[in-house]
Description:
four-stranded antiparallel sheet, 9 strands, five-stranded mixed β-barrel, mainly beta, 128 residues, 0% helix
Amino acid sequence: MEMGECTRxxxxxxxxxxxxxxxxxxxxxxxxxxxxxxxxxxxxxxxQLRPLPSVxxxxxxxxxxxxxxxxxPQRAFALVDFxxxxxxxFGRLRLExxxxxxxDSPVKVHLEEYKNDEDYIFSCxxxx
Length: 128
């Protein structure tokens, strides 16, 4: 690795059942999870890369209105709680059909093409 280069571990994986799981750094000495995963040079020796559940709880969200001048659609962003890991993750929120976000409702992690790559996105499993 060249000086100044930083390689960050991938932030997600598929498990054996095909479910998408976000990956977090677990630091046993501090008993904490960190997302996105820390690069190798910032991790403690005993740190581990661990998968989070594929479903979290919607802590909060925001809707950005469409921008007609730019031609961009409405977008949503969410803060998702993984309470068993004492961790909240920020990400994009997919709005589908008649399901509207509802605080503390379950949200699932998916993969979606984003800026010529795959990235995680959350979607509501139930709502208002």
